Amino acid sequence: MLRSHKIRLAPNNKQSTYFAKACGVARFAFNWALAEWKRQYEAGEKPTQASLRRQLNAIKREQFPWMLEVTKNAPQMAIVHLGQAFQNFFAGRAKYPTFKKKGIHDRFALTNDQFAVSDKQIRIPNLGWVRMREGLRFSGRIMSATFSRKADQWFVSITVDTKDRPPTCENQAVVGVDLGVNRLATLSDGTLIQGTKPHKALLNRLQRLSRSLSRKQKGSKNRVKAKRKLARLHVRIANIRNDELHKLTTRLASQYGVIGIEDLNVKGMMANHHLARAVGDMGFHEFRRQLEYKTGMRGSQVIVADRWFASSKICSVCETKQESMPLSTREWTCSECGTHQERDLNAAKNLMKWAVSSTVTACGEDVRPAHTEAASMKQEFNAKTTYV
């Protein structure tokens, strides 16, 4: 199976400059190829990434000689990625490709014949050895490497074809997971995951640095310094969010065979300025992305409930649906059976029921996985987690 390990680099000034140039070349090649693709398509031709790569190779020495300062893979792989983007677009998996902007997702890729890895170093032709903060975690055939930048930090993501797999989830327990704003998640077994929000001091510092940046003169060195400080802080806050999400999704994928979640309209929730900060702090979309790929590796399963499934309004005991329930209502009593419900826990139980009923065999018979206790896991979890 293919697995990737993202490692932070420790380049010197010369190496950082080379990386920045390579990102610029890759971005230019992508934008050039996208413009050329549009032009040829409108002229009735059928462009391909292979033909565009040959076309660029034929003209770059005369028209774009500065491209020769970095590895040939930077522009070539950028055009390959454009071809993949168009494949995803025509298959309905993605939107139409757009032009790349400097400073937004700066990256370039290398094939496995363009670099070598040794212990805590990676070697690039014409650049030499670059130090890595840690060694490669997986053993196997190295396929590719993608270099990227966040703020002023450089990373390499090395893809390996390996036989190493995460431990398979042997437990067949079923759980429903309700994501929320006040706390990250509520499990159907009563576990409450509070979630780590950025410390108030970090948010205050974020506001202060944003104001400082707005006062700096455009093009000045002080503005560049302020922008770099602000970017570093954004990365730190994002790392806090991702760390908590990785702990939670790893735990769920390792301990439960079937996991029921909601199909949340994250884009619509972010449009609500009252909820945008809280939703961003919790990272609902990232939670689902991590959970889906981790369950795929461990043999467990994610069941996504219909977007219009009223998990909060339906009583988990008698299945009576309440007429209306504003977000401010955190607890309620069922008008039919009289059961007192906690909103998030009730929703999690309904999601668990949905997951069980949706897990069917090819013959159409219900599969009722055993409601066993979740397997133990040797991993630190959020200290703020409480159990009820």
Quick recap:
The protein contains nine helices and 15 strands. It is of the alpha+beta class and 388 residues long.
Explain what this protein looks like in three dimensions:
The chain contains 9 helices and 15 strands. The strands form 4 sheets. It has a 6-stranded mixed sheet with strand order 12-11-8-9-10-15. It has 2 domains: 2-161, no CATH class; 174-387, no CATH class. With 388 residues, the protein is an alpha+beta fold. The model is unreliable at 365-388 (pLDDT under 50).
Number of strands: 15
Beta-strand content estimate:
15-25%
The level of helicity is 40-55%
Going across the biggest sheet, name each strand in turn: 12-11-8-9-10-15
Q: Report the average pLDDT across residues.
A: 84
Largest sheet: 6 strands, mixed
Number of domains: 2
Work out the helix count: 9
How do the SSEs run, as a string of H and E? EHHHEEEEEEEEEHHEHHHEEEHE
Distance between the termini: 39 Å
- Determine the structural class based on helices, strands and strand pairing: alpha+beta
What's the arrangement of secondary structure elements?
Blueprint: E1 2-8, H1 13-42, H2 49-63, H3 73-90, E2 107-111, E3 116-118, E4 121-124, E5 128-131, E6 141-150, E7 153-161, E8 174-179, E9 185-187, E10 191-193, H4 200-215, H5 221-255, E11 258-261, H6 266-271, H7 276-282, H8 284-298, E12 301-304, E13 331-333, E14 340-342, H9 343-358, E15 386-387
Parallel strand pairs: 8-11, 11-12
Antiparallel strand pairs: 1-7, 2-6, 3-4, 4-5, 6-7, 8-9, 9-10, 10-15, 13-14
Helix pairs in contact: 1-2, 1-3, 2-3, 4-5, 5-8
